[in-house]
């Protein structure tokens, strides 16, 4: 490229190279003196630069050594913004690229508004950015973008996220799962949830498309104010990060202490597994539910026909892992119950075989048929108050249960019948008992009267 293609044939300043652009000058700026000021400033600054630095600047701008490019709007009237070094990097690959007042071609600092001190230090800073960009000319901007994205994917924290992706996603899923409410002890569950918020924060702060590797969007690269780096921006992800081309390294906006992150993610997995292992009753119930669902797949049973119908119907849309349920984070993440009551419904049938369950289903259907033929109101009212009724068969279930549970107190029984899964109730596994929630529709203050009617 010849010099005449780049600018004017006559260059009146010994340390500036004037490049014309078709732009209007912002109102009220006289700029003859600005060019003189720039010339003397760059003269002063360039005398202290090393030959290497001067050569790098010339390599970038493709101008003679010792001159600095300045845009002018008309004969000797300076455009009051300095050209971004990025423009010259781009120009190497886009031959037809002309300098325009586009913001990407110019820095945003208005020269006319700087104090003499600011003016000098700003120009010195620009020279350093130019020298830095001179080191980058060996690759095209497209190649630098590719390198930045590879370096992003190789960032230690992104690597950690990628390696732990299964765990992170399992934790997110289980954190929203109703299963957490039945694991014991409740205070450890609460602690685990609290830890999850802290441990997952840095992963959650990354955009979803850039959480485990660099995103595939179009990114922009600008030489940052705190060179020697590029600022990488992805508009789609609303994300910035720094790429250091000389070290081929990325710095995230929020760097995470790496060793701590490694330990923390391992700890929340271990803590969850301990919770699951500490609640074998729930695991046994889930394993049985999984088996029953396989015995009676796609079954749309009428849940009102009896307890086995209710049990099978309750898991018709439940999801389980491909392999038997295990007390671990990775296994339990695949469990999705439609209702947590299934854990309670299955309790009487933990040892029941497929043939026996099939028989029980048939019995319930037969019973329903015969009941339909009889008077519908054959249920015996045991106790009634303010429109709420306790039937004799319900009292039978409660009494049968109480005969086996000697530790039950009056106060606790109210909570269990009302279906309140308090810490105490859960620590005694009462939320899995057959009487849990039996009087759920009742107002709590009426339940003591109902209990007193038989206790
Ligand atoms: Zn993106």
Counted by DSSP, the helix tally is 19
Q: Helix fraction?
A: 40-55%
- Poorly predicted ranges: 1-5
Structural class: alpha+beta
What is the number of E strands?
9
Distance between the termini: 102 Å
What count of domains describes the coordinates?
4
Strand order of the largest sheet: 4-5-6-7
Bound ions, cofactors and other small molecules, one mention each:
zinc ion
Assess the beta-strand content as a share of residues.
Answer: 5-15%
N to C succession of SSEs: HEHHEEHHHHHHEEEEHHHHHHEEHHHH
- The backbone outline, from C-alpha atoms, is rod-shaped
Mean pLDDT: 88
Kindly provide the radius of gyration, computed on alpha-carbon positions and rounded to a whole number of angstroms.
Answer: 37 Å
Q: Give a quick account of the main beta sheet: strands, pairing sense, barrel closure.
A: 4 strands, antiparallel
Can you give me a brief rundown of this structure?
With about 450 residues, the protein is an alpha+beta fold. The protein has helices at about 5, 30-45, 50-60, 85-95, 115-135, 140-155, 155-165, 165-175, 185-205, 260-275, 280-295, 305-315, 330, 340-345, 355-375, 390-405, 410-420, 425, 445-450; strands at about 15-20, 70-75, 75-80, 220-225, 230-235, 240-245, 250, 380-385, 390.
């Amino acid at each position: 490229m010849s010099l005449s293609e780049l600018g004017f044939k006559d260059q009146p300043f010994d340390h500036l190279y004037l490049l014309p652009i078709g732009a209007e000058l912002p109102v009220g700026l006289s700029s003859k003196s600005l060019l003189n000021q720039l010339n003397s400033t760059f003269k002063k600054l360039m005398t202290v630069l090393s030959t290497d630095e001067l050569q790098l600047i010339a390599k970038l701008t493709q101008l003679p050594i010792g001159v600095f490019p300045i845009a002018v709007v008309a004969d000797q009237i300076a455009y009051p913004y300095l050209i971004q070094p990025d423009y010259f990097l781009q120009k190497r690959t886009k031959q037809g690229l002309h300098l325009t007042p586009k913001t990407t071609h110019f820095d945003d600092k208005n020269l006319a508004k700087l104090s003499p001190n600011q003016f000098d230090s700003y120009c010195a800073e620009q020279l350093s950015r130019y020298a830095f960009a001179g080191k980058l000319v060996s690759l095209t901007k497209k190649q630098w973008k590719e390198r930045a994205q590879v370096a992003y994917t190789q960032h230690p924290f992104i690597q950690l996220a990628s390696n732990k992706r299964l765990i992170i996603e399992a934790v997110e899923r289980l954190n929203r799962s109703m299963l957490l409410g039945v694991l014991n002890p409740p205070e450890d569950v609460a602690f685990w949830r609290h830890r999850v918020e802290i441990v997952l924060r840095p992963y959650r702060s990354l955009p979803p498309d850039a959480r485990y590797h660099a995103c595939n969007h179009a990114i922009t690269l600008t030489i940052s104010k705190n060179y020697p780096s590029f600022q990488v921006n992805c508009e789609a992800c609303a994300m910035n990060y720094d790429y250091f081309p000389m070290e081929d390294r990325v710095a995230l906006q929020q760097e995470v202490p790496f060793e701590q992150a490694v330990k923390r993610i391992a700890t929340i997995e271990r803590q969850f597994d301990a919770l699951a292992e500490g609640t074998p009753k729930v695991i046994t119930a889930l394993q049985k539910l999984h088996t029953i669902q396989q015995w009676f797949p796609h079954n749309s049973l009428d849940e009102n026909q009896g307890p086995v119908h209710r049990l099978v119907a309750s898991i018709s849309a439940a999801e389980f892992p491909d392999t038997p349920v295990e007390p671990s984070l990775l296994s339990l993440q695949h469990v999705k119950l439609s209702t947590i009551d299934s854990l309670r419904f299955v309790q009487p049938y933990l040892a029941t075989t497929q043939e026996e369950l099939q028989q029980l289903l048939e019995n319930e259907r037969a019973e329903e048929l015969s009941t339909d033929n009889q008077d519908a109101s054959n249920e015996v009212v045991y106790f009634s108050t303010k429109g709420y009724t306790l039937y004799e068969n319900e009292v039978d279930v409660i009494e049968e249960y109480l005969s086996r549970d000697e530790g039950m107190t009056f106060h606790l029984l109210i909570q269990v019948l009302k279906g309140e899964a308090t810490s105490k109730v859960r620590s005694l596994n009462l939320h899995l008992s057959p009487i849990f929630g039996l009087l759920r529709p009742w107002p709590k203050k009426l339940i003591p009267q109902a209990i007193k009617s038989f206790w």
